[in-house]
Amino acid sequence: MPMHEDHPNIDPPPAEEKPGSPPEGVTPVSMLDLNPDIPGLRTEAQRTKWSQRAKELLRQIETDRAEWLARKTEFLCHWNEYVYPIRSGAWAESSVLHLPLTMEKGKALHAHLMSAFFMISPWFLMKPRERMDRTVVELKDQFMQWATKSYVNNYEGLFPVVDEWLWSVVFDGWSILEADWIRPQRKARIVEWRVENGAEVPYEVDKMVTVFDGPVVRLLRQEDCYMLGNYQNAPQAAPFFAVREWLTEEQIKLHAAQNLFIRAAAERVLDQDGAQTRAGELQEAQNPQRIQDEQEGVQTVDSTANPRGFECFKIYWTVDIDGDGLAEEIVLLLEAKTGEILRATYLDRVSPTGKRPFFKGDLIKRPGRAYSIGMAELLYPLNQELDATHNQKIDFGTISNIPFFFYQPMSGMKQEELRLAPGVGIPVDDVAGVKFPQLPNSTAFGDREEMNLVNFADKVTAVAGPLVGQPSNPQGAGRTATGMTTMLGQTNLQLDIFVKRLQEPFSALLHYLDALFQTRLPDGVDFRVLGPDGLEHRDPKTGQSVIRTVKSKFELAGKVDYELCGNTSSSNRELEFQKTLARMQTFLNPLFLQLGISTPQTIYENARDFIRAQGVVDPD
Fold this sequence. Notes:
- The protein has 620 residues and is α+β, with helices and mostly antiparallel strands.
- It is 39% helix and 16% strand.
- The protein contains 18 helices and 16 strands.
- It has helices spanning 44-64, 66-79, 101-118, 134-150, 152-155, 159-172, 234-237, 249-257, 263-271, 288-296, 347-350, 375-378, 380-401, 443-461, 481-520, 573-587, 590-595, 600-612; strands spanning 124-128, 174-182, 185-196, 199-210, 214-220, 225-227, 240-247, 310-319, 328-335, 341-346, 358-362, 406-407, 434-435, 525-528, 547-550, 560-564.
- The strands form six sheets. Strands 6-7-8-9-10 form a five-stranded antiparallel beta sheet. A three-stranded antiparallel beta sheet has the order 5-2-11.
- Helix 2 (66-79) runs parallel beside helix 10 (288-296), helix 3 runs antiparallel to helix 6 (159-172) and helix 13 (380-401) packs antiparallel against helix 14 (443-461).
- The longest helix is centred in the last third of the chain and has 40 residues, at 481-520.
C-alpha cells in the first residue's frame, strides 16, 4: 500500500523522470505537435541566424505600421469616449458634448450581421465534396451542428467569439480569428477511493488534470498582428505573418515538459534576469489597450495587476530554410527578449488543411491592402463636424439666455468683469450706460447642418430608416408597402455584400474545424443531437434527448463544403413572416395538391416555418 511518512493515505512523490521524457500524466497535445528535425535549424548557430532575420522583419513591420497605430488610437479616443471631453470649448462652461453617431451606426450594423449569421437555423448547410455514405454525412452534420454551438471554446460554442469578431470588424475595419486545438493540463491533488480489505479507503494523489481537449477559436488583438501591408489577405497570402502572444512561466514549463518546446531554449528563457520586462513596453504609450483601460476606468496593463509574462512571436514564414532552393512553410515561436526559438515545425505538420489557422474578416476593403476601413475611420470626420455643429448650437443658446453686455466706464458700475446669473440684481447709476446686444437667431443653420450630416452618414453606411426601426419619409416610395419593400431591397444590396464578405472566412473556419476533428478528436465523444431548428432533438417515445457517440475520429472522414444560410433578409422578422406566408399559400394551391407536388410532409414543414416566424420557438 502506498505510504507517506506524514500521512498513510498520501502517495509518495513520483520518481525522478528520465531525461527527455515527460513527467507522469503530462502528455503532448498530439504527436503532430512535437518538433520535427528541420535542416537549417539543427544547430544553435543556425537558429540564431534565423532568429535575427525574423527580429529584423518584425522591426521593419513595427516601423511601417507606426502611423496606422497612431491613427487607430486617435479613432478609438474619439468614438469610444463619452465621459471626458475630447475637445476644448471657447470658454470654461461651453458645450463639449460628443454625439454617439459612430456607435449608433456601428451597433446597428453589428446587430444585422449577427442576425444574418445566427438568427437562422441551421447556421450552415453541409454539402459533400466527394462520394460519401449517407450515414457518415448525417453523423458529420449532426456533430458539427452540436460542436459549433456547444463544444468549441471550452464548451461555450462559436457565438461569443464571433460576436466579438464582428464587432471588431465593424468598428476597426478588419479582425482576425485564430483556430487551434489545445489540451491544457494542471496539477491537482484529488481524492481517489480504493477498495482494500472489502472497504473503501480515500487516498490523496497528485495528478495532471486535463482541463479541455478540443478546438479553440481566439480573437486576435490588432496590435498583436504583424502583417505586410500590401497583401489583402495577409495572414494567408503574405510570405511572413506573425502574432504576438504572452506566455507565463508556468505555460513555458508545461510545454517544455510536453516536448512541445525545445527544452534547452526554454530553460535559457526562464533563467534570464528580469524576464518579466516587456520588450515592447516603449510602445505602451500608444497602445490601444491602454486607451481602452483609461476609458473604462481600469488599469489592466499594469505589470503588478496583470502579469503579461514573456513576450513571444508566433511566426508563419514561407522561406527556403534549408538552402535547397525550395521554399518551406515553417512555424516558429520566438521569445522576443532573448531571441530564443522555443519551437520550430512545418505548417503541414500542425495544420490539417495545409493552410495557416487565421481567418481575416474585412468590412470595406482597400484593394490589395491589408488594412480595411471600418466605421470608426469612415465616420470620423462626420462625427467631428456633427459634434462641432451641435456644440455651437448649445453655446449660442447659452449666450442668448445669459448674454454678454457692454457698459460705459462712467455708468456707475465697478471696473471689473461681471458674470450674469438668474435672479441677480446689479446696481448702476444710469441704466442707459448698459447695453445688451441683440443676437440674431441662427440656430436654423445648425439644425439643417446636423440633418445633412446624419443623412450623409446614412448613405455612406447603408444603415438608415426602416433598417434601424425608424419611420421613413411618408412622401414618395415609402407611403406604400410595395415601395417600402423595394427600398429595403435596395438597402439590403449593400448589406448583403458585407454579409457575403464575412461569410467567406467564417465558412473557411468551419472547414478548418472539421479538419481538426478528423485528425485530433479523442475517441468516444458523446454529443447531443440537434434538430434543424437548432433545438434539442428528442426521442418521440421517451421524450429524452437523443445522444450519439463518435467512437473514432475516422468516422468523420470526408471532404465537405459549408454554405452559410443567413442573409440580411433573415434579420427582418416581418419580411420572413411574409415570405413564409406566401410559401405556405403557394403549396396549398389546389393544382399543387392534385399533382402531388404538395405532400403532407411539405405542408407540415411550411406550417411549422409559418408558426416559427411568428415567434414560437418550438412549434412541435
